Amino acid sequence: MQLTRRAFAASALALAAPLPAFAQGSETERLNAFFEEVYQRNLKRSPIAQSRRGLKTDNDKWDDIG
Questions:
Q1: Is 10 among the domain residues?
Q2: pTM of the shown model
Q3: Within-domain flag for 13
Q4: How many Å apart are CA 24 and CA 12, to the nearest integer?
Q5: H/E run at residue 32
Q6: Which residue, among 36, 38, 58, has the nearest Cα to 48 in the 3D structure?
Q7: How do residues 15-49 score in pLDDT, each as one tens digit?
Q8: Which residues of 15-25 are buried (b: 16+ CB within 10 A; e: fewer)?
Q9: Is 37 inside a domain boundary?
Q10: In 3D, which of 29, 33, 55, 31 has the Cα closest to residue 43?
Q11: Is the pLDDT of residue 1 over 70?
Q12: Is residue 51 situated within a structural domain?
């Protein structure tokens, strides 16, 4: 199948067009929520990382590094 110039230009314009604002916002919000969830999950697993960030929740649960 060979694309004509007109078909190629139309498909290129369609792909280059920005997404509607509502789609961008919801996708961005979902992605930010995912990253926040992963960050909090990883932070909860690591008392040393919590301490590095100034959180004093699990200071008694540090791994034995010595």
A1: no
A2: 0.54
A3: no
A4: 20
A5: helix 21-45
A6: 58
A7: 666 655 555 678 999 999 999 999 999 999 999 99
A8: eeeeeeeeeee
A9: yes
A10: 55
A11: no
A12: yes
